[in-house]
Structures are given as structure tokens and as C-alpha cells.
Amino acid sequence: MDRPNYITPAGYATLRAEYELLFAKERPALVETISWAAGNGDRSENGDYIYGRKRLREIDRRLGWLSKRMKAAKVVDPAQQEDKSRAYFGATVTIADEDDNHRTLTLVGDDEADAAKGLVGWNAPLARALRGAGIGDLRRVNLPAGEREYEVIAITYP
């Protein structure tokens, strides 16, 4: 991984909780089901066994991915940001486009991004354009729908 995986403390806790749920609850229960199904004889037509093995591979793959992301994570607390007049990691930014449509979004780690909740990944085009912006700054962003210009209206930190 060539760049750090910035993440908020809440985002890291979410990754950790998912890892612990899969590792401590789902995986052991699934292994028990697979063992039971394997004891029933013919495995070639045993749905519990076949599905269980497939699901176990999915869980192991997800556990590996979560483990790598947590190892590479650099937890950054937005409340500790020194310059709160500019948009940096963890900032909640209100922007307005050319049509005076306002949007409020929070710059978070890529693993926490959720556009429906207004959480924009740190490496998304919009977040990259807003990095370091102050109130009143105009920023141009190349989006899939075309180039847009946004004005920063407000910046807050938790």
C-alpha cells in the first residue's frame, strides 16, 4: 500500500467490531455446521456442507481484508485538528454549487465513505478538491457528470 489508510476513531471501531463479529461468532458457528454436515455422509449433494464451505471462504477473505486495512490504518482524530479554519481530514464542510444548491459532507477515510450519509472518502475527487479550502474558496471538481464549481460555505470539526 503506497499511501496511508487514514481513518477516524469511529471508523476504526466499526472495522474492529466487524472483524470481531466474524472471527468470534460467525466463523465458529459456521465451522460447527460444516462439521455436522460433513458427518452426514455424501458431501457432493449436501447443501449445508457445500454452502458452509463457500460461506467460510467468504468470511476468511473478508477477515483477511479487514486485517490488512486495520494494520495499514492511521487513526486521525478530527477534533485534534490544529487549523480548524480549513478543510482537512474529518471536517464537515458545507458547499454550494453554481445553482446555489447546498450540500453538507464530511471528509472521512475511504473505508468509511457512504455518499448517502454525506461521508466522502478522503481520496474521492470532491474530497481532494476540498482539501485545504477555507470559507469562501471556490473549487473546481471534475466529476463523472462533468466539471462543477463549488464554494465553501462553512467548515466545522467535531
From TrEMBL:
Which UniProt keywords are listed?
DNA-binding, Elongation factor, Protein biosynthesis, Transcription, Transcription regulation
GO molecular function annotation: DNA binding; RNA polymerase binding; translation elongation factor activity
Domain of life, source organism: Bacteria
Where does the record locate the signal sequence feature?
Answer: none
Pfam families attached here?
A: GreA_GreB, GreA_GreB_N
Gene3D superfamilies linked: Transcription elongation factor, GreA/GreB, C-terminal domain, Transcription elongation factor, GreA/GreB, N-terminal domain
Transmembrane ranges? Answer: none
Domain Transcription elongation factor GreA/GreB N-terminal, by residue range, is 5-75
User: Which residues belong to any copy of the Transcription elongation factor GreA/GreB C-terminal domain?
Assistant: 84-157
Give the GO biological process terms.
DNA-templated transcription elongation; regulation of DNA-templated transcription elongation
Q: Which family does it belong to?
A: Belongs to the GreA/GreB family. GreB subfamily.
PANTHER family per the UniProt record, alphabetical: TRANSCRIPTION ELONGATION FACTOR GREA, TRANSCRIPTION ELONGATION FACTOR GREB
Briefly, what is this protein's role? Answer: Necessary for efficient RNA polymerase transcription elongation past template-encoded arresting sites. The arresting sites in DNA have the property of trapping a certain fraction of elongating RNA polymerases that pass through, resulting in locked ternary complexes. Cleavage of the nascent transcript by cleavage factors such as GreA or GreB allows the resumption of elongation from the new 3'terminus. GreB releases sequences of up to 9 nucleotides in length.
Protein name (Swiss-Prot/TrEMBL): Transcription elongation factor GreB
Please tell me the species this chain comes from. Answer: Sphingomonas kyeonggiensis
